[in-house]
Design a protein that fits this description.
The protein is about 50% helix and about 10% strand. The protein is built from 30 helices and twelve strands. A five-stranded mixed sheet has the order 8-9-10-11-12. β4 (about 255) and β5 form a beta hairpin. α7 runs parallel beside α12. Residues about 190-200 and about 655-665 have low confidence and may be disordered.
Length: about 675
């Protein structure tokens, strides 16, 4: 144990300098991260932290052990390697595995600084703190620790069965993603005026304990019918997406002994709200996986390669690290996000240059490709030699140049700054912008010239003639080299994965990066490429990221058929529900409602003859869409076909994903 502590301290001492310099460089690059506390942990501790979602303490439950075991086996048998984990908190806490190489640790540190910047600035993360009255900071570690202690106290209570607490958590967790992630979190308040039992006159008469003769004489059928007619009501007024909140406000538990729904206990309400609050806290991370991991990978690469944080001896190790992160198969959020951020930067920088060139006398959107010497433009955009090689031009750098950090320059000339290791320290933000300008990088040198006529016409249409240039040289002298990074920070602030992909997964991006859509074929009963059309690729991706990639289910009626039953509805987007999983959800929802639970959805049916014809014609068969209602009454699940009119409103129409948090909140 002492040797372990000594080794951890040695690694921590070795990382002190990279941590300080990475934070300094991140801020020079325009990032504004939360402060980050770094911790050195061993293999088992890292697996435990990953299982706990990046925190050291969570409430007691078997799922953490399952997640730990899965992570451990993935590392042991599948070759997976845990580089880091960082949580959304202020300050953020990052955990580094002690067995990783120094090159890996440096990569993790630069990656983490960008994550902490994303946490601090993305408005979707702000939705959680907007709903918390006490603070505008997440204070997540404290919140989760309070939750853990509260649930432990319930489990220790001699009047509460520990197994019942754990089983109740199971029920709630099954519905944990049925929240409205586009709204700020706010605690639910039970509506004491809502009495679902009041809708059943027979139950109310039973509670009065009257004789059968009096009941028959005074409360006849006419009275019963009037009660049902007067009290028949549906709620909520509009579909409620936060199913957990609705269940917390109006739900009951089913009492088997009494054979009916009864009030939830205080501990059940409390646990339900705890799981709901944590679902809201973790929702932004699920909504921004591509955006956030791509952002962190972009700045990590810039710092490690572009600014030499990976030394010559460490570069091969780092290249292997990055290839594993970006090279894994399937839908890789790191790779997709990294490439999209590069595309965003290039688009913004290209538009800036094109806008300048279109103001040059004699250059129009019609003759742009012939009139512009792109090689000459590339040369003019390239950074001066002293910015590319700071150590080699140290004595000739002008301290009054806005691209220079004058204080750092003086320290470098006095020998108080290792300019060979940290050349970026001598540059200001403006200098770093020029040093890393995307359009002059070798991999992007053709990006400017590839702009199409429709794009040129569109840009030209919105240009004002208030600033004209006599020459290309004059136009390029006014180029704002920071436009790409400025645009990236704007997007980082307001977007989530769905809006990011919808706006920036352009036709040009799909074609240049060879993206395609694939799906399961009813014809061949396997997976195959379904399309390379950019529109199809975008739609496929949007479906995978909308609502965490899970079906959207809302509450349509809390008094369905005036019987106190719950009616849920699946907002159908062309993908049918897995009936087995839907059944499990209904059974869990029943435990939180106390009465039968219904679910409306749209299903697809395939006619055998249509499948055979499609196979002969080498095409996919056309499905028939039908309405279905699943119902669980506490004993069994029934599935019935319903008239199309009952489910027609559930079929998705065109959805505008190009929105920001402010528009969602209108």
């Amino acid at each position: 144990m002492i040797d372990d502590r000594i080794e951890a301290q040695r690694i921590a001492d070795e990382l002190e300098e990279p941590v300080a310099r990475a934070g300094e460089l991140a801020r020079k690059l325009g990032l504004t991260p939360y402060p980050v506390n770094y911790w050195i942990v061993d293999y088992d501790e890292m697996n435990e932290l990953i299982a706990y979602g990046g925190f050291q303490e969570r409430y007691p439950h078997w799922r953490w052990g399952m997640a730990y075991d899965r992570q451990r086996k993935q590392s042991q048998f599948l070759g997976g390697k845990a580089f880091e984990i960082v949580n959304n908190d202020n300050p953020s806490h990052a955990f580094l595995q002690e067995s990783n190489s120094l090159a890996d640790q440096k990569a993790v540190i630069t990656h983490v600084e960008a994550h902490a910047d994303f946490f601090a600035n993305n408005e979707w993360f702000g939705l959680f703190t907007d709903g918390e009255e006490s603070s505008q900071d997440p204070a997540a570690a404290e919140m989760l620790a309070r939750h853990a202690e509260t649930i432990r106290e319930y489990m220790r209570d001699p009047e509460i069965d520990r197994n019942e607490v754990e089983q109740w958590i199971d029920h709630v967790l099954c519905l944990a993603d049925t929240i409205d992630q586009h709204r700020p979190y706010s605690p639910t308040v039970t509506d004491d005026e809502t009495d679902l039992d009041a809708a059943d006159p027979d139950e109310r008469l039973e509670e009065l304990d009257l004789s059968e003769d009096i009941t028959r004489q005074v409360f006849d059928d006419e009275w019963r019918d009037a009660q049902v007619e007067d009290e028949a009501r549906s709620f909520p007024a509009t579909p409620e997406k936060d199913v957990l909140a609705f269940l917390r406000e109006h739900g009951r538990q089913y009492d088997e002994a009494a054979g009916k729904a009864v009030e939830m206990t205080d501990w059940q309400k409390d646990v339900l709200e705890i799981v709901r609050r944590e679902a809201y806290y973790f929702a932004p991370q699920k909504m921004t996986k591509v955006l956030n991991e791509g952002w962190a990978s972009y700045w990590e690469s810039l710092m490690m390669v572009g600014e030499g944080f990976a030394s010559a001896e460490e570069f091969v190790t780092y290249a292997d690290h990055m290839s594993k992160v970006l090279g894994s198969g399937g839908l890789n959020p790191y790779k997709l996000g990294f490439e999209l951020w590069q595309h965003v930067e290039n688009l913004a920088n290209r538009r800036e240059v094109v806008e300048r060139l279109l103001r040059v006398e004699g250059i129009t959107w019609r003759n742009f490709q012939e009139a512009v010497d792109f090689e000459a433009v590339q040369s003019a955009l390239a950074p001066p030699a002293w910015i590319e090689d700071v150590p080699g031009h140290l004595e000739e750098i002008d301290p009054d140049d806005p691209r220079v950090d004058a204080d750092a320059l003086e320290r470098a000339r006095n020998g108080d700054l290792d300019v060979e290791t940290y050349p970026w320290a001598v540059l200001s933000y403006e200098g770093l912008v020029r040093r890393h300008y995307s359009l002059v990088k070798p991999q992007n040198r053709g990006f400017l010239s590839r702009i199409g006529q429709p794009q040129l016409e569109r840009i030209s249409r919105y240009l004002f003639d208030d600033s004209r240039y006599d020459s290309v040289e004059a136009a390029l002298s006014d180029v704002d080299y920071a436009r790409g990074w400025d645009r990236m920070r704007e997007i980082r602030q307001s977007h989530n994965d769905v809006t990011f992909i919808d706006e920036f997964l352009t036709d040009e991006f799909v074609e240049e990066n060879d993206y395609f859509a694939y799906e399961h074929s009813q014809q061949t009963d396997d997976f195959r490429v379904s399309s390379t059309d950019p529109g199809d690729v975008k739609r496929k991706l949007l479906l995978q990221f909308t609502n965490f990639g899970k079906p959207t289910v809302v509450v349509e009626d809390g008094n369905y058929d005036n019987a106190g039953e719950l009616l849920l509805a699946h907002r159908y987007n062309g993908i049918v529900l897995d009936i087995e999983q839907a059944t499990d959800v209904l059974e869990r929802a029943f435990e939180l409602w106390g009465r039968p639970v219904n679910l409306l959805t749209i299903d697809k049916e395939y006619d055998d003859s249509e499948i055979e014809v499609a196979r002969r014609q080498d095409r996919e068969p056309e499905p028939i869409e039908v309405g279905r209602r699943l119902r669980y009454d506490g004993q069994e699940v029934t599935v019935d076909e319903v008239p199309w009119e009952m489910v027609e409103h559930l079929a998705a129409t065109d959805v505008d994903y190009d929105t920001t948090p402010e528009e969602w909140l209108d």
